[in-house]
Design a protein that fits this description.
heterodimer, A: 113 residues, Arc Repressor Mutant, subunit A, three-stranded antiparallel β-sheet, 3 strands, B: 885 residues, alpha+beta, 4 domains, ten-stranded mixed β-sheet, 53% helix
Chain lengths: 113, 885
């Protein structure tokens, strides 16, 4: 298992949107998916995922439908709406810019070295 | 899209509350099951797995809370919660809540009333089509819209700036169709009046320019909508019917639209008749005299013509008129005014008055806000422990501030609602109020949407303003220090912002108290003013001989008969007659006056202008007007004798240089008549505006200057009802068709005194509010500073301080604040004296009685406000205080 990392403030929505973009997921599935993709480095607080999901639904980025899980449990599955897909694109581009910029700053060396 | 989703979720939040709760619970259950399934798969027992899943998930109630916030917008939820909490908090301290609400209700109510008046008189127009281009033509010289018929015709036919020019003049007429004549108020209008305004009849037709075929050619009447409803039961068949107006047959051609009340805001006429029929209605032709200014002129500017262009064109026409008719015209320069108040002659003082009132009302609101601000600050300080505890337990400062502000806004909204409710009552009463029954007063001041909006905005804004006062205090609160040591004891020695606020508030209140004192002084002066006559115990009978069918040569004999008949009524001490209304009641006719030696009787060479009255010999006796020197008129001052006059002292001073030798001397009128002065009377009041300087006045014998309007003046101690029965009987005996309107002179004068009295009452009320606000303000401060220093005072008492010292320590500061504030208010008042004198009759705040009154009032305010705190301070028991903590 990789070392644990903190979820940066403000990035939770991005992570959830990305996770859901790979295929419809229920709330617990979102948790698992993020943990699995990050190879265990990112572990979300369980109680925090649902308010975030509800907020994204309210903003019209996700929509939820009740369905049945692999092991026959009734659960609500979330998937991206068109607006959600657009937002994910924007957020990802924003993240790339930020990461690149921070990367540049952090790899800077003293001049003339 | 997002907004839509938001609204949907909001709606569903309220509509399907249970379902949502159930769904949330379902989702939570699904999560726990799925997690438990995984845990079981990794080898745990089912029970242990379920337990583990719940532990991992964390607090479920917190989940629900957060989830609920997320599902629907937090805003409404939070606001409702804050408001509920605020109401609960306020109910814990009802006296505070009531004091705050009452204070604000007064302030908001006062502002709503004043704003409604402004809205009704200035902002809200007459509601005519294209009113923006509608103007009245006024003369620059006297700011009055008033032209003679002949001048009007020239202006109408020559102007290229106006679509068309119309004229109108309020007049009183008699409907003589029934058994007894009944009085109506009418507009005599030019035949193009309705077309020039661009309005359509409700019923039938209006008369048009084409109906005007010369003098007395258009016996048509248009009814106003309310008159048609009340006097003709809204019967559509009235069109075409003939009624008798001043005994002449007139055909009703139509009914004006419902909202149309003529073109002066205050005045709602019952019917409209063509101006060309004036000679027939009044019995004398006033249309042929170019010097006789008869009516207001109004019209729409043509599209694309600016007011400036129109004025320069009118001025050119004026110059041409001056040149062509130099005898009748002088200083014919024009300006354009808004029609609603008939131009600037009325609008300017009205605006000044209402502007002054709005200023005072705004001051009240500011005073109320500072007042509530310090109350809130005191409250926040008292609650500092509670706030500190909340902070220590992790409440965010934003949350606490929001709570304080929402308390303020809740108070503001309740106060605003109460204030608005009160003001609506006052306004309803005002708009149906008929202070003088003989005049068709129309007060368009009922509250409308704009008023409600302003009141709401004022409430919320003032709530935020006074709620914001204690914010700094809360933001700086250090929870640990307060919980350790209690609220910081001992007032800071230096002057705080709150003290300054209070000083400012007291100053404003002192100013209000002062203006109300000035107003009351003015009122008492106007009540005791020397009118030059004594209206008490005098009954006036208004009649009109021309209307009753008398021709000019027959009038004097009939007037003599009326006087003789009334003299036989038992208890009638003196009976006289005056042509046109007695002084003050209405604007009186006037004339230019020339010295005896002036040969060229052009307006420019006149020595003065004077109002004129025609009276019977006993008038001065009946009116109790003292003769300074000379003689009264007799019945021998008739058409065949030397023309004589009795003048007042200003007249004598202006025309002859001094009143002393005036009796016996001569002067001239514009028609060349030589008049000899035979008597001199005191100045008295002759103008509608009592505050004006005395005007020159001349009285002529009725036999030498016959007048159709005849007001009988009867002095008698008997009461009005008995007297009027007797009077009616006598007049009926002389001529059953003679119209008469009977009232006491004092009642008739209510109209003249209406404006100054209204102003005085308004200012008085505002002043009383100011005084109340200072009491609560000082009281709040004294009580608060006392609470803060109780411990210190207890120690002082324990150390043996005397009562005087205790009082000084406890109340020195509030008293200083009161002192500085009152002084500031007095200075402000003296500086604002010009504004005040604009509003009130002979107002001067430099009046020593006013100054003393204000000082006394503020002293009483101080005593009242500090009485309870002072008693509390004196009763401080050191033992209890030391035991506390």
């Amino acid at each position: 298992m990789a070392e644990q990392a903190q979820v940066l403030p403000g990035t939770l929505d991005l992570l959830i949107l990305k996770a859901v973009s790979l295929g419809p997921l229920h709330g617990y599935g979102v948790l698992l998916r993020i943990e699995q993709i990050s190879r265990g480095a990112l572990s979300l607080e369980q109680g925090a995922v649902y308010p975030a999901l509800f907020r994204l639904v309210r903003q019209g980025l996700l929509k939820g439908t009740w369905g049945t899980s692999d092991n026959n449990r009734r659960a609500k599955f979330y998937q991206l709406t068109a607006a959600g897909r657009k937002r994910l694109q924007e957020e990802m581009e924003g993240w790339d810019r930020l990461a690149a910029a921070i990367g540049l700053v952090l790899t800077a060396r003293p001049e003339g070295a | 899209m997002r907004l839509l989703a938001y609204v949907q979720s909001l709606a569903s939040r309220f509509l399907r509350r249970d379902q949502l709760e159930a769904e949330m619970a379902d989702e939570l259950r699904a999560h726990l099951e799925l997690r438990a399934d995984d845990l079981v798969r990794s080898g745990m027992s089912r029970t242990a797995a379920e337990r583990q899943a719940r532990i991992e998930f964390g607090g479920q109630s917190r989940f629900k809370e957060e989830a609920r916030d997320m599902v629907a917008g937090r805003m409404i939820e939070t606001v409702v919660r804050d408001a509920r909490l605020s109401v609960r908090q306020l109910r814990k301290s009802p006296s505070f809540a009531i004091a705050a609400i009452v204070t604000l209700a007064m302030a908001i109510g006062a502002n709503a009333v004043v704003f409604s008046a402004i809205n009704g008189f200035i902002l809200r127009p007459l509601d005519l089509p294209n009113e923006r281009s509608l103007y009245v033509v006024e003369r620059t010289a006297d700011k009055a819209s008033s032209e003679s018929y002949l001048n009007y015709i020239d202006l109408r036919d020559r102007t290229r700036s106006f679509e068309s020019l119309a004229g109108f003049s309020p007049d009183q007429l008699w409907i003589t169709s029934g058994a007894t004549p009944s009085r109506v108020w009418a507009f005599q209008v030019t035949a193009n009046y309705f077309d020039a305004l661009g309005i359509r009849p409700y019923l039938g037709r209006f008369f048009h320019a084409a109906d005007d075929q010369g003098i007395n050619s258009a016996p048509y009447a248009v009814l106003s909508y309310p008159y048609w409803r009340t006097h003709f039961d809204g019967d559509a068949a009235v069109v075409g019917r003939t009624i008798r107006i001043n005994k002449q047959p007139y055909t009703i051609v139509g009914v004006a639209p419902e909202g149309f009340r003529g073109t002066i805001l205050f005045f709602s006429p019952d019917l409209f008749v063509p101006m060309v029929n004036q000679p027939q209605l009044d019995g004398t032709n006033q249309l042929t005299s170019r010097g006789q200014r008869l009516f207001a002129v109004i019209g729409h500017l043509k599209a694309g013509v600016t007011p400036t262009q129109a004025v320069s064109e009118l001025d050119a026409l004026g110059q041409w008129l001056e040149k062509t008719y130099p005898k009748e015209n002088e200083k014919l320069r024009f300006m354009l005014g808004r029609p609603s108040l008939n131009g600037d002659g009325l609008a300017a003082p009205m605006k000044a008055f209402l502007g002054g009132l709005m200023l005072l009302a705004a001051l009240i609101l500011i005073a109320a806000c500072t007042n509530l601000g310090s109350l809130f600050a005191a409250r926040a300080a008292e609650r500092s422990r509670e706030v500190a505890l909340q902070l220590a337990l992790g409440a965010s400062r934003i949350r606490i501030i929001r709570q304080l502000l929402s308390e303020a806004v809740v108070i503001a909204l309740i106060g605003g609602a109460v204030g608005l409710w009160g003001s609506v009552l006052v306004l309803q009463w005002l708009s149906v109020w008929h202070p003088f029954p003989q005049f068709p007063l129309n007060m368009p001041v009922a509250a409308d949407g704009r008023v409600y909006l302003v009141a709401l905005a004022l409430s919320v804004a003032s709530g935020l303003v006074f709620g914001a006062v204690p914010l700094r205090q809360v933001l700086r609160t250090d929870p640990y220090a307060i919980i350790k040591a209690g609220a910081p004891a001992g007032a800071p020695r230096r002057l705080t912002a709150r003290d300054l606020l209070l000083v400012a508030q007291i100053a404003v209140c002192a100013l209000l108290v002062m203006s109300s004192m000035v107003a009351l002084r003015g009122l008492s002066r106007s009540l005791r003013a020397d009118f030059g006559f004594d209206p008490h115990n005098v009954t006036l009978v208004e009649t009109d001989l021309a209307m009753a069918g008398y021709r000019v040569p027959d009038m004097p004999a009939m007037q003599r008969r009326m006087i003789d008949a009334l003299q036989t009524i038992p208890g009638a001490e003196a009976v006289a007659l005056i042509g046109q209304a007695p002084p003050i009641l209405f604007v009186s006719n006037g004339s230019k006056v020339f010295t005896e030696t002036t040969a060229d009787l052009e307006p420019a060479s006149a020595v003065t202008a004077a109002v004129m009255y025609s009276v019977s010999p006993d008038y001065f006796l009946a009116a109790h007007t003292r003769l300074v020197s000379g003689r009264q008129f007799t019945w021998h001052d008739d058409a065949s004798a030397q023309r004589v006059a009795i003048v007042n002292q200003v007249f004598a001073r202006r025309v002859f240089g001094s009143p002393a030798g005036a009796v016996g001397r001569f002067y001239k009128l514009p028609d060349g008549a030589r008049i000899q002065v035979v008597g001199l009377i005191p100045d008295g009041k002759n103008s509608l505006n009592l505050a004006d300087e005395p005007q020159p006045a001349m009285f002529f014998p009725i036999l030498q200057s016959p007048y159709s309007d005849s007001w009988l003046v009867i002095r008698s101690e008997r009461d009005l009802s008995q007297l009027s029965t007797a009077i009616r009987a006598k007049l009926h005996g002389l001529d059953p068709g003679l119209p008469s309107f009977i009232e006491t002179w004092t009642t008739a004068m209510q109209g003249a005194l209406f404006a100054p009295r209204m102003a005085s009452i308004t200012l008085g009320v505002l002043g009383a509010m100011g005084a109340i606000l200072s009491v609560t303000g000082i009281f709040g401060m004294a009580a608060y500073s006392l609470t803060k220093r109780l411990k210190e005072l207890g120690i002082r008492v324990a150390l043996g301080a005397q009562q005087g010292e205790i009082l000084r320590a406890a109340l020195g500061r509030p008293f200083k604040v009161l002192l500085f504030g009152s002084a500031g208010g007095l200075v402000l008042g003296v500086l604002a004296s010009r504004v005040l004198s604009f509003i009130v009759y002979q107002a001067t705040p430099r009046d020593p009685i006013v100054l003393a009154g204000v000082v006394l009032a503020m002293f009483v305010v101080g005593l009242t406000a500090t009485w309870i705190p002072a008693r509390r301070a004196l009763l401080v028991d050191p033992l209890i205080l030391l035991r506390d903590e």
